[in-house]
Amino acid sequence: MGGATALGLKRFCPDAAITVTARHPETLAKYDGKGMQATLDNVAAAAWADIVVLGVKPWLVKEVLEPLLPELKGKLLLSLAAGIPGTQMLEWTASAGPEGVYTVIPNLAIEIGESMTFASEVTGTPATRKTVLDLFGAVGKVQLVNEKQLAAGTMVASCGTAFALRYVRAATEGGVQLGLYPAQALEAALQTVKGAADLVFEHGTHPEQEIDRVTTPGGITIRGLNAMEEAGFSNAVIKGLIIK
Ligand SMILES: NC(=O)c1ccc[n+]([C@@H]2O[C@H](COP(=O)([O-])OP(=O)(O)OC[C@H]3O[C@@H](n4cnc5c(N)ncnc54)[C@H](OP(=O)(O)O)[C@@H]3O)[C@@H](O)[C@H]2O)c1
Question: How far from 234 is each of 34, 81, 112, 214, 237, CA to CA, in Å?
Fold first, then answer.
C-alpha cells in the first residue's frame, strides 16, 4: 500500500519529491526509473521529508516509528496502518512534536489516481487537514472522518476493492457459462461496473434509481436481481462488511 501510494502520488503530483524506503534492496528496485529517491535508511528519509508516510504492518509501527521521532518535529506524519487507535498514535508521537498526525486508509486504486481514501485526524491544524485533503484528493476521493468511521471506511473502500472484484469474477464466470470467452466476459464485467459507478457519480442518483431504469416489469433484469437476492446477495455483502 505504501508503494501504491508513492506511485500514485508521483504520477498525479509529478512535482512532489518522494523518497521510498524498505528493508530489502529488491523492494526498492521496483521504484527504479520512477522519478523517486530510494533508500534503506528510514531516519535519513524522515529527516529530509516534510511529510512522513508510514506504510508498514500495524504490528511494526511502534518499532519503525521510534527511531524517526527526533526527525518529526513540526512535520506531518501519516500512518497507513489500519486498526491502531488514535490515542495510541498520540502516545507514541506526542514527545516528537509533529504538526499533525493522521491515520490514512487509501485503497489500491491510489496507484491509478482512483483511490477512495479515508483519513482520521489524531492531531492537527486546519492547515495540516487541508494538506491531507489536497494530497489524497489528487489521487482520488477522500473523506475526513472520525476514528469510528475509519473502521467502516476501511471495510467499504479498502477491503471493498477485493469485494468488488469478487463480484467481477463471479460475473465473468457467469458470462462464460452463458457463452462469452473469458476475456470478453471479464471486459464486459469490468466496464459494466465502472460505467455503473460513473453513472451514479455523474447523475448524483441513488443506485436504485438507475436500477429502476433498467428493470422492465416482468423482464430479465428484475428476474436476475430477484434470483440473486434469493441466493442472499445483499445479505452476503453486508455480512462480509460487518464481520469482526
Ligand atoms: N492492503 C491494503 O489494501 C491496505 C489499505 C490501506 C492500508 N493498509 C495498511 O498498509 C500497511 C501496509 O500493508 P501492506 O499490505 O502494504 O504491507 P506489505 O506488503 O507487507 O508492505 C510493507 C512494506 O513495509 C516495508 N517495511 C517493513 N518493515 C520496514 C522497516 N523497518 N523499514 C522500512 N520499510 C519496512 C516492507 O519492505 P520490504 O519489502 O523490503 O520488506 C514492505 O515494502 C498496513 O499497516 C495496512 O494496514 C493496507
Answer: 41, 29, 29, 19, 5
Who contacts 36 (Cβ-Cβ below 8 Å, separation ≥6)?
Answer: 6, 10, 18, 19, 20
CA distance 159 to 110: 14
> Can you list the domains of the chain with their CATH numbers?
2-145 (3.40.50.720), 160-242 (1.10.3730.10)
Q: Read off the pLDDT of residues 151-170 as tens digits, 9 standing for 90 and up.
A: 999 999 999 999 999 999 99
Q: What is the CA radius of gyration of the chain?
A: 21
Please indicate whether residue 58, judged by its CB atom, sits closer than 6 Å to ligand 1.
yes
Q: Can you give the pLDDT at residue 244?
A: 77
| Spatial distance between the Cα atoms of 232 and 98, rounded to a whole number of angstroms | 48
Residues 6+ apart with CB under 8 A from 205: 199
Residue corresponding to grid cell 519529491? 17
What percent of the chain lies above the pLDDT cut of 90?
Answer: 100
- Closest ligand 1 atom, CA of 83? 47
Residue 81 CB less than 6 A away from ligand 1:
yes
Nearest Cα residue to 170 out of 97, 223, 237, 89 = 237
Task: Report the SS3 class of residue 14.
Answer: coil
* Residue with CA at minimum distance from ligand 1 atom 24: 56
Instruction: Report the residue among 7, 23, 102, 111 best suited for mutation to probe ligand 1: largest number of ligand atoms under 8 A from its CB.
Output: 23
